Amino acid sequence: MDEVDPGDFRTRVRQSFGRQAFMETLGADLTRVEHAMVEIEMPFDAKLTQQHGFLHAGVISAALDAACGYAAYTVIDPDASILTIEFKVNLLSPGRGERFLFRGEITKPGSTIIVADGRAYALTNGPAKLIASMSGSMMVIRGREDVTG
Amino acid sequence: MDEVDPGDFRTRVRQSFGRQAFMETLGADLTRVEHAMVEIEMPFDAKLTQQHGFLHAGVISAALDAACGYAAYTVIDPDASILTIEFKVNLLSPGRGERFLFRGEITKPGSTIIVADGRAYALTNGPAKLIASMSGSMMVIRGREDVTG
Amino acid sequence: MDEVDPGDFRTRVRQSFGRQAFMETLGADLTRVEHAMVEIEMPFDAKLTQQHGFLHAGVISAALDAACGYAAYTVIDPDASILTIEFKVNLLSPGRGERFLFRGEITKPGSTIIVADGRAYALTNGPAKLIASMSGSMMVIRGREDVTG
Amino acid sequence: MDEVDPGDFRTRVRQSFGRQAFMETLGADLTRVEHAMVEIEMPFDAKLTQQHGFLHAGVISAALDAACGYAAYTVIDPDASILTIEFKVNLLSPGRGERFLFRGEITKPGSTIIVADGRAYALTNGPAKLIASMSGSMMVIRGREDVTG
Lengths: 149, 149, 149, 149
Fold this sequence. Notes:
4 copies of one chain form a homotetramer.
Chain A: H1 9-19, H2 21-26, E1 29-34, E2 37-43, H3 57-73, E3 81-91, E4 99-108, E5 113-123, E6 129-141
Antiparallel strand pairs in A: 1-2, 2-4, 3-6, 4-5, 5-6
GO molecular function (chains A, B, C, D): fatty acyl-CoA hydrolase activity
Protein name (chains A, B, C, D): Medium/long-chain acyl-CoA thioesterase YigI
Keywords (chains A, B, C, D): Hydrolase
């Protein structure tokens, strides 16, 4: 039970993810937390679409940013926090699918800046289809009262 | 009344925006549509937040992408449509505010690729505070049945 | 012998690379051309440095852009050409080393837009050190007289 | 005479620019240094071209990065230095022209991260033509022996 060790990164990631109200709005679940890698999944929902009925680029960005940001959480000190500085998203295929998987991985850890890459996949029948990629920079935050956890 | 001229870009933008279900999920309104420039506004809502209580970067991305994309709609033929290829967002200040304004403007029109820049502002008392910037590439789509309007 | 088949992608890539005068200015060599993957190498040269004596970010960008662009050439028709639309570079470590390796790989082929990812490494003694990553969008060009080969 | 005041930002920028050997390789000159804004100019040179004879995207990136980076130098303490974390470049038109102008401007100053935007123009006869835009993040560096000035 990682619930009993607050220093454990899985616990910290799950607690912080649980405070991201927007993830609940999106219907997103944290499905995997490993050292330097986090996965988030989400079912398709018509309320998350753009004008052609595909998953909105902003939804894809939100979930990839969360996956990359929480991947960064797994490699920092327990008392530090993470803020995203910037990210770029390439939209590779329309966001069509029954479910979506978002994976964030650390490309370069660091004491101040952490760089992560993310990939989004549509899951239906057959093989997962790559629909977007992200590269982002995260800043490690310490000692700021408004940015904890 | 632009409602009677389907070729009018304001009508087309409003109709397409109305089909972006995710904008309604975000509580976002289309508040200004000019040639090569679109503005979207949104009140703060706790269901749109990240773990520190700020507006989620994904919400900012969604609204900036929509503002940039619809700015692109204002400069294309009535029978064409727009898909975002990629964007980058720089998060400049935490998303704190009572309301938020997202402006997209065309930097470079084109027959195939349109480049747009966006800026997001927090509105409370006092001057608008710049919280994010976006640069994105949009592709003009013609003749695809699944990408119209 | 690919020299005798002008439709061969290796020949086309080498011929086009040979016309990139800037690659000669940088002292860059095309060292590997595979389907969807190209590598370029370059020795350190003091004339390529920024103010702290590291390899200039612009040099890294030039070589990664060339590696990504030529990776795109390997997946297009012989009579098409490639122009870069955009790229983002994350600078992960200072550009210190005796030699540098730049690899570009296709993430998403396409008839109009090709997305590629690149990685730059410093080579000295010991393992290659990742110094930069790129993600970029390339446009496939056909029928434009000023953009051939 | 700013040459006599080493704390003056114009002096520091000129001295640091003078140490960027790659700027000399490109034939680039520092033509304007204002608070939060720097301009660099460069004549067209066939040795700086890509395969179609246009200015190489890497040259454009190098000069925009330098313009943005030195714009950041103008807003930091005299004993601090700047390293680029990341940038994105959108290539808007082919790099054709007799001369090129690169302007970097600070979008968001900061004690750790500075965000700058840049624009590149081709200058021939007639109005300047916008050929590229950049957005980049710079990190303020203090107390590192290998990164000074």
